[in-house]
């Protein structure tokens, strides 16, 4: 009888152990302890497919700031030709913010809180115009509405002023509609806007690998018209690999200690 009980006890013990394992809480995924925050502003989109391939290959999530910029195919970066590309990035779990609809570059503050800007897109491209706070908020909201229309998702309440050019009045205007501005770290300027004859890719890569530190916000673009030797993916892929070798990891602005709440607040 004792032998029979022993034979029965063994499978019951194994089953009990399996149930305990199943009921145990899953261990959390290891946190990114030395993060850098890779961000992209829109551009002519010529390197966008290559950027997406590199990010997928290295399992890196980034933050994208969206404007309807002129593209190499003669359209805009938020038109129907690029809708599928944005849907794919949204499905992959990247984070998104506004870059103003017409890529309005701040020029000066004016009395009464108005802003003088110079858009690079739209019917007034290349000419200065004056925007009050409500008009500037509309420039910020249009990419958010278009992104929601394309992807069915909502971008966060963060924005990047084109060229990073801001002022007290501009930041105040954006705050009235709930937007928080995100710039970049000094070492995070990755140089893809610089002329490639004087700033070759190998030099930009060496500088970034030397200077970038944990906590830095990195800036690149999805295509710069003036650069002859494209920065992406020539620098992007070895930069990601090199920073990982230095013990760094990549996070989106949703995980940033200062900007996380705004990046996670939907428009």
Task: Give a description of the structure.
- By secondary structure, this protein is α/β, with parallel strands linked by helices.
- It has 8 helices and 10 strands.
- Strands 1, 2, 3, 9 and 10 form a 5-stranded parallel beta sheet that branches. Strands 4-5-6 form a 3-stranded antiparallel beta sheet.
- Strand 4 and strand 5 form a beta hairpin.
- Helix 4 (133-151) crosses helix 5.
- The termini are far apart.
- Residues 1-29 have low confidence and may be disordered.
Q: Summarize this, please?
A:
The protein has helices at residues 2-23, 48-57, 83-92, 133-151, 168-176, 201-211, 236-245, 260-264, and strands at 35-41, 63-66, 95-98, 104-109, 115-119, 129-131, 158-159, 180-181, 217-221, 249-251. It has 267 residues and is of the alpha/beta class. Helix 4 crosses helix 5.
Shape: globular
Task: Report the β-strand fraction as a percent range.
Answer: 15-25%
In N-to-C order, the SSE pattern is HEHEHEEEEHEHEHEHEH
Largest sheet: 5 strands, parallel
Overall structural class, as computed from helix and strand content, comes to: alpha/beta
Number of strands: 10
- What fraction, in percent, of the residue positions are helical? 25-40%
Cα distance, first to last residue? 70 Å
Low-confidence stretches: 1-29
Average residue-wise pLDDT? 90
How many DSSP helices? 8
**Taking Cα atoms only, what radius of gyration do you get, to the nearest Å?**
23 Å
């Amino acid at each position: 009888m004792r032998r029979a009980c022993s034979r029965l006890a063994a499978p019951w013990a194994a089953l009990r152990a399996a149930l305990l394992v199943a009921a145990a809480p899953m261990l959390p995924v290891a946190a990114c302890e030395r993060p850098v925050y890779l961000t992209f502003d829109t551009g002519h989109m010529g390197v966008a497919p290559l950027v997406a391939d590199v990010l997928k290959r290295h399992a890196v999530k980034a933050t994208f700031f969206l404007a309807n910029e002129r593209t190499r195919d003669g359209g805009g970066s938020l038109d129907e030709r690029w809708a599928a590309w944005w849907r794919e990035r949204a499905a992959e779990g990247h984070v998104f913010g506004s870059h103003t609809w017409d890529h309005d570059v701040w020029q000066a503050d004016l009395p009464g809180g108005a802003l003088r800007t110079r858009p690079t897109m739209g019917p007034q491209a290349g000419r200065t115009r004056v925007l009050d706070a409500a008009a500037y908020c509309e420039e910020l909201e249009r990419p958010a509405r278009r992104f929601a229309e394309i992807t069915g998702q909502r971008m966060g309440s963060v924005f990047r002023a084109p060229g990073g050019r801001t002022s007290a009045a501009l930041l105040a205007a954006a705050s009235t509609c709930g937007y928080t501005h995100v710039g970049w770290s000094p070492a995070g300027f990755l140089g893809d806007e610089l002329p490639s004859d004087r700033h070759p890719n190998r030099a930009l890569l060496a500088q970034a690998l030397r200077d970038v530190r944990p906590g830095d916000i990195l800036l690149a673009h999805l295509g710069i018209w003036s650069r002859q030797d494209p920065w992406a993916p020539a620098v992007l892929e070895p930069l990601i690999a090199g920073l990982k070798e230095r013990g760094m990891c990549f996070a989106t602005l949703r995980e940033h200690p200062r900007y996380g709440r705004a990046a996670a607040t939907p428009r």
